[in-house]
Design goal:
- By secondary structure, the chain is α+β, with helices and mostly antiparallel strands.
- It has a single domain, classed as Beta-Lactamase.
- About 30% of the residues lie in helices and about 25% in strands.
- The protein is built from 6 helices and 6 strands.
- The protein has a 6-stranded antiparallel sheet, with helices on both faces.
- The chain is globular.
Length: about 170
């Protein structure tokens, strides 16, 4: 796990009650580690979609003090939702302008961490959006090849996110 900057305060957000069973935690850690090695990123998170509340809950973070497990992303933009949740198409933000879009919250923290590019790799089962593997790095870090690699890794999260659906509460 990367060292978290000690001078930054955790992001302010609502938190879901969440228990991550050991098997799911190991799968999340394994995929995140592989993503770090293969694709790269300074901030790696995994988010679980909750259709009943139309939000995402963070179930993994390599910076858990700043980006806490259980953190809820509820201000999801219509374009991002249409693309990822409905269209099952991963999202590539190649620079800070794309990060300022409706796809990302907490721009102040992203700026403080010098995160200027991102991939949201869709995780789906039988044509249904389950969540995403999120990789954030410096400007120019990611290409369409990076997205393909992240999508391949994200398939390894299907079972863990399916299991976690029953462990989250709104």
């Amino acid at each position: 796990m990367k060292q978290e900057p000690a001078d930054l305060e955790p992001i302010t957000e609502s938190l879901a009650q969440l228990t991550v069973p050991t098997g799911a935690a190991l799968a999340l850690e394994s995929v995140a580690g592989a993503a770090t090695r293969l694709v790269g990123g300074r901030l790696i998170t995994v988010s679980l979609w909750r259709p009943s509340t139309r939000d995402l809950v963070r179930v993994y973070s390599n910076m858990p003090r700043l980006y806490r497990i259980g953190g809820i992303s509820s201000a999801l933009g219509a374009d991002w939702t249409r693309r990822c949740v409905v269209g099952l198409e991963s999202f590539l933000a190649e620079d800070e302008d794309a990060l300022d879009s409706d796809a990302f919250e907490h721009q102040d923290m992203l700026g403080a961490l010098h995160l200027e590019a991102a991939i949201n790799a869709v995780v789906a089962r039988d044509g249904v959006f389950l969540g995403c593997l999120n990789l954030l790095g410096s400007k120019g870090s990611y290409t369409q090849r990076s997205v393909s690699d992240a999508e391949n890794l994200a398939t390894g999260l299907v079972d863990a996110l399916t299991e976690l659906e029953s462990y989250t509460s709104g």
